[in-house]
Amino acid sequence: MLVGSDVAGFDYKEVLLADLREDPRVSAVEDLGVTAEDLESESYGEVAIRAAEAIRDGRADRAILVCGTGIGVAIAANKVSGIRATVAHDSFSVERSVLSNDCQVLTFGQRVVGLQLARRLAKEWLGYEFDPASPSQEKVEVISAYEGC
């Protein structure tokens, strides 16, 4: 599991990182930054692309990314072929992001989602697994075929 943020999502990233490290379903967690020592070191795009490339290359299976709105990190991660990232604000969207769309990246906005809700949604998201035998597989394949994956 990867976790990352820019300066606008740093506080939530730190809390989510701690939660994930305590979750028995998570075998390993990697902090992709930014760090407290250098909050301005990277943009949301750099962090999100690094996370998405790690998933694409098989070095991780999922990531949670945080910026001010969650939109920027979702857009940046989605630029990496084979990656499906979404910003979510509610339980149903979190559920469907995995069960209907096989999303590997969940994003939040520190400026738009309360901390306790983000923590709850991250925990819920970890409990979902995409079923390749579901009717949604064909829909995900359309996206993958377009990308050439």
UniProtKB/TrEMBL annotation:
User: What's the family?
Assistant: Belongs to the LacAB/RpiB family.
An example Gene Ontology molecular-function term: ribose-5-phosphate isomerase activity
Keywords, A to Z? Isomerase
Q: Which PANTHER family match?
A: RIBOSE 5-PHOSPHATE ISOMERASE, RIBOSE 5-PHOSPHATE ISOMERASE-RELATED
- Pfam (any one): LacAB_rpiB
List the InterPro entries. Rib-5-P_Isoase_Actino, RpiB_LacA_LacB, RpiB_LacA_LacB_sf, SPI_LacAB/RpiB
EC number(s) per entry: 5.3.1.6
For the protein in the UniProt heading, the enzyme class is: isomerase
Report the protein name in the record.
Ribose-5-phosphate isomerase
